[in-house]
Structure formats: C-alpha cells, structure tokens
Amino acid sequence: MAQISEIAxxxxxxxxxxxxxxxxxxxxxxxxxxxxxxxxxxxKATANPGYLHRGFEKLMEYRTWIQNFPMxxxxxxxxxxxxxxxxxxxxxxxxxxxxxxxxxYIRSICLxxxxxxxxxxxxxxxxxxxxxxxxxxxxxxxxxxxxxxxEELTGGRVYHIYLWPGGVRRDFPKGFRDRIVHTLxxxxxxxxxxxxxxxxxxxxxERARGVGQLSQEQAKALGATGPVLRATGMKFDIRKVEPxxxxxxxxxxxxxxxxxxxxxxxWVVRDELIESVHMVFKLLDAMPDGEVYNRxxxxxxxxxxxxxxxxRCESSRGELxxxxxxxxxxxxxxxxxxxxxxxxxxxxxxxxLEGASIADVGNxxxxxxxxxxxxxx
Amino acid sequence: xxxxxxxxxxxxxxxxxVTDREDGMMFVLAPGESIxxxxxxxxxxxxxxxxxxxxxxxxxxxxxxxxxxxxxxxxNNTDYGPEQRRHVLLRTKLPRESAELDSVIGIxxxxxxxxxxxxxxxxxHFEGHPRLIPLFLERGYEIPPFRKDFDTRxxxxxxxxxxxxxxx
Lengths: 377, 168
What we know:
The structure holds 2 protein chains of 2 kinds. Chain A is α+β, with helices and mostly antiparallel strands. Chain A has helices at residues 56-59, 69-72, 80-95, 101-130, 133-154, 176-188, 191-199, 202-208, 216-221, 226-230, 238-241, 262-286, 341-353, 361-367, 372-376, and strands spanning 3-8, 15-20, 32-38, 41-48, 163-164, 167-168, 307-315, 318-326, 334-338.
C-alpha cells in the first residue's frame, strides 16, 4: 500500500506526499520514490535508493583478486557478464595480462548473449508494466532460452563467473556453436510477432510517446549513457568508440533515435537486440581457433603491482566503468563501480518526473532502464 | 591537443601537477580549493562527461583522496577521434580529520548523488551541497563505514551478534 500524507492546501488543490515504494504495483525492483503530488500531477520526486545496499565495494577490499568474482556479478542481477568483464579488464590492465584472440571473440559473444537476455528482460518489464501481458511472457520465455545456453556453457543460469583474467574459463563445448545459432534463429523468428503485438501497437505509441522526454543537452549534462543517450540522437557506444574484446573485428551499426522519450528509448532497445543477434552470427563466423586462456599466477599468492585504472565497457544499460586501485597487495585497495543506472535512476529520474502524471511514474522509470541493485551496489 | 591541455592547466593554475600515462590517461593533482575551477576549465576544453566521483582512504598517509573521472562525449553526434579518446583523472588530497571540499554541482549536475555518497561513506563534507543527507544507509555510524579503520566484521558482531542462533 502506498502511504499518503497531506502536506499543504485543501480540496483538489492540496498537495499530498505519496510514497511510491517497492511494494507499489507500479514499481519494478527494490527502489522507492517519494512524490509530492497535486491532483495526479507530480510536483517533485525524490529517489530513495538503499534497499539493496550490500556494501560490495567495501567487502571486496577484504577478499583476494579472484575471490571477488562471485561478488562482482551480483551487482547487476540482470546482466552479470558485463560486470565480470569490466572487473577482469581492470585486473588485466593492472597486472599486465594478455588475452588470447579466441578468448576475445568468446567474450564478445557472451556479452552479446547477455545483452540479448538483458534486453528481453527489459522488454518484459516494460511491456508488462503497460499491460501487454502476451509479449511480456514471450520475452521471458525467450530470455530463458538464452539462459539455457549459459547453463550449458558455464553451469550457472544467472551468475556465470565465466569471464576471467587472462581469458575465459573454458572453451565452447562440442556443438555449442550450432545451438547458439539455433536459439538465436528461433528468437529472431518472433520479431514480426513482437512488432505486431507491441512495437507497432497504437496503444504502446500512445502510452510512451513524450513520456520522460529528455533533450540531448539535458541527457549530456546529467551524465546519461546507453539507450537513454542514443535515443536523443548521439551514436555514443563504448563498443564502437573505444573497442574492447572483439568488437572492432566485425561490422555492426549503432541504432539511434531522435526524440529522447520513452517510445524512442524502447525502440533503441529493440533495434539493439536485433543488432546483437546479427553480431553474434558474425562473431561466430570470424572466430579463430586457439587457446582461450592465459595462465595467471597462483590465485592464493597473487599480488598485483601498485597502480590504478579506470576501464569501461558498454553494458546493456550504458557506460559501466570500474575504478580499481591496487597498493601492491593480494587484495584490491579500492573498488568503485560506475554503473549506468546510477545517474539514470537518481539525477535523471528526479528531473524527468517533474510535472509527469502519476500514471507515468513507473513508465518513466522502466523506460530509463533503471535496475536497482546497480545503483546501490 | 593533450599536450596543450597539459600546458594550459599548468599555466592557468598554481600548484597543479599533471602526469600523462601511455594508455591515454592523464592524472591531474590539484589542491582542494581549486577543484571547481579546474573542473570548469576541463569542461570548457571538451571533457564534458563526468563519469565518476570516487574517494580513496589512504590511512597510512592520513589522507582522503577524492577522485573525479572525466571523459568526452561525441562531437556532433558522430565524431570520436583521438582528441576525445582521453580520460582525465583529477584528484585532490584532504586531511582525514577535516576533509572539506566545495560542491561541484554547479558545473556537473550529476555530481549530486556522488557527493552525497562520499559524504555518507567517507565523511567528506561538500560545502554548498543542497541536501547532504544519507543516500543509502539508515543507521548512524561512529566512523563513516567505508573508511579503512571501520572494521566490517567487528561491526556485524557487535550489532547482530546478540541475536541467538535459530534452534531446530
């Protein structure tokens, strides 16, 4: 139940404070917003994170470099692979480890599969919130097919701990390539149905057009990245501008839209999903044979020379960065994740909700692609 | 361009030390009072994306290091050349007992939650911040919990240790 308390005025002009909390039906995730409303118009929104603050960054200072892997992936439940990737990249940079070429391709394929599963999850959340139950259930089912692939590859459905300093933990199993192709073909075959029921649906257009609209100047000033920024027309994608793994080895396009509202953000997500599927096919074709793993020193005695690094990669939500400091010990001295939902869920959400209607609060939040555990860490 | 940024910074501000690294990262060490001015200068020279504000507790030196990480967005929505492909790490060192800095929300609006977080977890006071209230935590802490002298295990034992184990 939402809690309401009167704060000023009387009759229909009175101001109320509405607690739009994690139990509220319009809210997805452990997150809450305090809304100051008049009628059904939001005057001011205050984001309250902290429901999932587990202090991972502090806990990681007590554990060795390798022991931290089961922890980093839990920071973003929906897309753990990019978390592992960014941590592995930072450790490799500090320790000066090279990664074999085949492993770079496998990393890219894993990250794109993770992006597909994360975008499908996002589609589930968004279409479900708008009341499109059918495409939401399809998206959930198709995400599960991708998780089946991960289960075969890594043993885990949600958390994989597969990307590793020096490469990946093991090579693809026999026949795995064909199963990736088969799964992605069967998901791709549903795109016309998704379009007919959801993306080209007049109701989606009416509900999402103009909601949470941001100009490109606003998006830049507030630190937006990922689909939120690309929906305002900028072709900014870290996979393209500062390529890592094997993203510079194949041709692919960065989808953008111009309007900067919820409608264009969700369309960017749809186009990216299709682009990712194509990219996996291209990566599979171009993948060389060879080693997938460069040996690292004994993890129990592994000391990394003093230094600091900022590395970043493009997660499905935007720029995911890691500032990692080593003082020459067997554990990190300081770990700080720059997660894309942090500016999206705090600064941009508060700005975008000013003047919105109460019915659009959940709409705005999910279209900004906020995932709460990423904010809290 | 990177070389000119370096000479420009050294010529404009007193007490600023600039070092370059081979991987394109530039480290700028500035005294606390000139942080807003240096940030504004960097922003005017193309570094328009404040990616992260962080803090490191160097307990042996008795210093808290506040770190601002700046990168570039694209020019004209499509251009991203070597000029944009640079990361600047601006840092300042503050005494642990009286860590105070001016807020930079006027320059980068998205610094607001970052400064709140650093105030809550490291105890750095940001002068001019409109709502320096806790971001994540509910309980009060004697020392800010992300500082190195805060012992997580000891805290957990003290706070939750009195709860008897569940018997079957």
